[in-house]
Every structure is written in structure tokens, then in C-alpha cells.
Specification:
It is built from seven helices and no strands. The chain is mostly helical.
């Protein structure tokens, strides 16, 4: 899937490989969910396996954190170092000799190389981005209520609030789709629109992918709740999905601040 994505972005011919990889990832997730659910319901997991799951999920989320730290680091490096250097500031200000007429500003609407056309304008953070921020924050609240209800055995309450969380996740995805359409159709924000377009789509795109995955996981939890799975204390599958969703929400808050607002 990643190789197909790279070929598609660079050459535009990797879509078949991308789709094959995507189907493979979905298949792995489906078979994995099936096996873990059947083993758990069959009583095959003991306390040691519970600890193993918790450590595994913790390290997985840590790896995801480092994944986003790398892209945030690229954004900060460009904004705090590379662009000022090209404007003649700092220890490497000699870089300004490459494009002497370049004016260092962010968002970078006018890339130093005139062969690259920058975006025409950027999004106001107080419109669609703010709506999506409120949606995700609300979804964390609804998911927490669902989790607490499950802990005390209120399964119907848990189900209802979990349905709300899944719907909010779907709303976020649809609104981001509208934002991407607006970016390409009216704002000139594309992957080819200089470093701003590249960092914008890399950060928000990978986050959107994580929201899609998180929504699928929560939908799976919803089906399990409907089937009577999980007990008041034995429900780490549900708890792990909550960890993941809250992590995705926190990452979005960082995106909203550093990509849209600051």
C-alpha cells in the first residue's frame, strides 16, 4: 500500500498497487479482529495475555506518536529554520543567494522557486477546521461516557453513546473530504503547491486515515456490544479502542493549532 502510494504521488501510475495493498491491510485487520474475538470469547486469555495486550497497545500508540512527531518536526524545521535561512536570517542566511527576491513568510503562498505555484489562499481556522475540532472533542466525551457505562454494566447506555461516537467520526471524515475538495477546487492548496501544500496534506491526510481506522475499530466494538461481548471488568478490547481514539483526538488538537491557527 505504501509503495503504491509513493508511486501514485510521484508518477501517477501506482493506483492498482495501492488498491491491492489497501485490500490486503483491510483483510489483515478483519482476520485479526476475528481471531482475537473468538479467542477472547473462548476464554483462552489469562492475566499474562491481558498484560501483553496492554503493553502491546501502549507501544503501538507510542510508535504512532513518533510517526506524527516526525511530520510535525518537518513542519517546525521548515518554518523555524529553512524559510528564515532562505530569507537571509541565521547562520545559514547565505542560502538567500539562491533566490534573492524571496520574502520569508508563513503560510508560504509564494515559494522561492517561481517554477512552483503556491496556494492562492489558506483556510480560515474558524470555519471547517474549528467544526471538526469540536466534533472530535465531543466524540472523546461521548466515548468516555460509553466506556464508563460499560464499566458499571449499563450496556444499552454504552451502546447509545458509542453509536454517537461512530457517527461523529463519520461526520469528521465527511467534513474533511469537503475541505479537501475546497482546497483543490478553490484554494489552490495541492500536493504540488510548495512546502505548505505538502505538509498540509501529509499531516491532515495521515490523521484522516487514522480517524477512518479508529472509526472502523469503534464500529467493530459496537457490533460486539450488540452481541453481548465484554464484561464489566473484562473489556480491554473496548478500552484499547478508547486509547487509540483519544490519541487521534489529541493529535488533531495539535494539528489545529500548528497547521491552521499559528
Amino acid at each position: 500500500m505504501m509503495v503504491g502510494t509513493g508511486i501514485t504521488l510521484v508518477y501517477g501510475t501506482g493506483l492498482p498497487l495501492l488498491l491491492i495493498g489497501l485490500i490486503g491491510v483491510i483483510a489483515v485487520m478483519g482476520f485479526w479482529f476475528r481471531d482475537v474475538i473468538s479467542e477472547s470469547q473462548g476464554g483462552l486469555y489469562d492475566e499474562q495475555m491481558e498484560r501483553s495486550f496492554r503493553w502491546g497497545m501502549g507501544w503501538f500508540i507510542f510508535s504512532e506518536l513518533m510517526f506524527f512527531v516526525a511530520f510535525f518536526g518537518a513542519l517546525f524545521y521548515v518554518r523555524m529554520f529553512a524559510i528564515p535561512w532562505l530569507g537571509g536570517e541565521g547562520a545559514k542566511g547565505v542560502s538567500a543567494l539562491l533566490w534573492p527576491d524571496f520574502v520569508p513568510t508563513w503560510p508560504l503562498l509564494s515559494p522561492p522557486d517561481t517554477a512552483i505555484e503556491g496556494p492562492q489562499q489558506v483556510f480560515s481556522p474558524w470555519q471547517l477546521p474549528l467544526v471538526n475540532t469540536l466534533i472530535l472533542i465531543t466524540s472523546s466525551i461521548t466515548l468516555t461516557v460509553a466506556h464508563e457505562a460499560l464499566k458499571v454494566g449499563y450496556r444499552r447506555t454504552c451502546r447509545n453513546w458509542l453509536v454517537g461516537t461512530v457517527l461523529l467520526g463519520c461526520c469528521f471524515i465527511m467534513i474533511q473530504g469537503v475541505e479537501y475538495y475546497e482546497a483543490y477546487a478553490h484554494y489552490g492548496i495541492t500536493l504540488e503547491a510548495g512546502i505548505f501544500g505538502a505538509t498540509f496534506f501529509i499531516l491532515t491526510g495521515f490523521h484522516g486515515l487514522h480517524v477512518i481506522i479508529g472509526t472502523l475499530i469503534l464500529a467493530t466494538m459496537l457490533v460486539r456490544i450488540q452481541k453481548g461481548h465484554f464484561g464489566d471488568e473484562n473489556h480491554f478490547g473496548f478500552e484499547a479502542s478508547c486509547w487509540y481514539w483519544h490519541f487521534v483526538d489529541v493529535v488533531w488538537v495539535g494539528l489545529f493549532i500548528f497547521v491552521y491557527v499559528v
